[in-house]
Write a structure and sequence with these properties.
The protein is α+β, with helices and mostly antiparallel strands and about 325 residues long. The protein has helices spanning about 5-15, 30, 40-45, 115-120, 190-195, 220-225, 275-285, 285-295, 300-310, 310-320; strands at about 55-65, 70-85, 100-110, 120-125, 130-135, 145-150, 155-165, 170-180, 200-205, 210, 235, 245-250. The chain has a domain at about 5-10 and about 35-260. It has ten helices and twelve strands.
């Protein structure tokens, strides 16, 4: 199983839309996050007439036997609010209640197809509310006070199941639900997001079998592939071309075997943008803007520091690359 490659792609998916250039909280497009793959509490979904999802489902096909083993995990971002110590003046330009993200995952047990066909495996999970007081910096490394980070409760279930659909073909399903109980109705989307799974995606691996592409299934499996139900995510093969042991169910559109360009120095938040343009634009930010970035988010700070330390040779690699050459056809005339 190629979980290392899947994790690399999933990391770009995880932060897609989380914070956009110029990576400053004060920029208009970062005041209201554009979140992908959100799984809201059931109560909030019901209050919105079901328009905001409280569940996510992926189904795929596997060629294998009763002894074929499957394992996987659900990955997402959990939000936390950041507030300055009320006894001290606020530092920097961060708005009160600024939302940060913490990576979380839910491991699914390694199971045989035989076991999953007999009965679904249910995994319940719960992340308890948590409040932490940390030192607060002014962006230049100087401690100027304290900051409170608060996380709200999140609860849910994951159902992991399989069914035999034809000889050595099996349909695998993962159904995620957000069952968080809310003491009082949430007043707005920001409050609901605190109890939600953000940028949610799923990674699956198989031993003793192989996943079948839903984008390009064999002709004899086209009908079975079309019957697979995917809600909120879509599964694609991950790894080197031709490998069939790892699957990523992503909330953004991907094709089989997505790749991170080897020229990329790291994972920018604008994962589908152009590294060279973003890196050059980051270097044009003013000192005040860079100070704001350093205060706002650890991963935004890492982007800034990595870009500022990037050698000229790396910038040249970002300018362009030749993936292959083909002969130029001669003019028939």
């Amino acid at each position: 199983m190629n979980f290392a490659r899947a994790d690399q792609i999933a990391k770009a998916v995880l932060y897609e839309g989380y914070m956009l250039y110029p990576y400053r909280p004060s920029s208009v497009k970062n005041r209201q996050r554009w979140n992908f793959g959100v799984v809201y509490p059931q109560a909030y979904s019901d209050a919105q007439g079901g328009e905001e999802p409280s569940s996510m489902r992926t189904e795929c096909l596997v060629r294998g036997s009763a002894a074929t083993m499957l394992e996987g995990k659900v990955r997402f971002l959990r939000l936390q609010t950041r507030s300055a110590n009320a006894s001290l003046p606020p530092t920097g330009s961060l708005p009160e209640g600024w939302q940060e993200a913490v990576e979380r995952d839910i491991a699914l047990p390694s199971c045989s197809l035989e076991r999953l066909c007999q009965a679904a495996v249910k995994r319940e999970f719960a992340f308890q509310p948590r409040t932490v007081i940390d030192p607060d910096s002014n962006g230049n490394g100087e401690i100027v006070g304290t900051v409170e980070r608060r996380q709200a409760a999140i609860e849910g279930t994951v159902d992991f199941a399989a069914e035999s659909v034809r000889d050595d073909r099996f349909r695998i399903s993962i159904h995620l639900r957000n069952t968080t109980q809310l003491a009082t109705p949430v007043r707005n989307r920001d409050e609901a997001l605190m109890h939600s799974l953000i940028s949610t995606h799923m990674i699956l691996g198989v031993q003793g079998g192989e996943f079948i592409s839903l984008l390009e299934p064999p002709e004899d499996l086209y009908e079975l592939a079309a019957r697979c139900k995917n809600v909120g995510v879509w599964p694609v093969l991950v790894g080197e071309e031709g490998q069939h042991d790892t699957l990523l169910a992503s909330p953004i559109i991907l094709y089989d075997y997505p790749q991170i360009a080897p020229e990329s120095a790291g994972d920018l938040f604008d994962g589908t943008e152009i590294d060279e343009i973003l890196s050059l634009r980051i270097m044009t930010l003013t000192d005040d803007e860079k100070r704001e970035i350093r205060q706002s988010d650890d991963r935004a700070r890492q982007i800034l520091e990595r870009t500022e330390a990037m050698p000229a040779e790396q910038f040249m690699k970002l300018h362009g690359a030749v993936r292959g050459l083909r002969p130029l056809k001669e003019d028939a005339s």
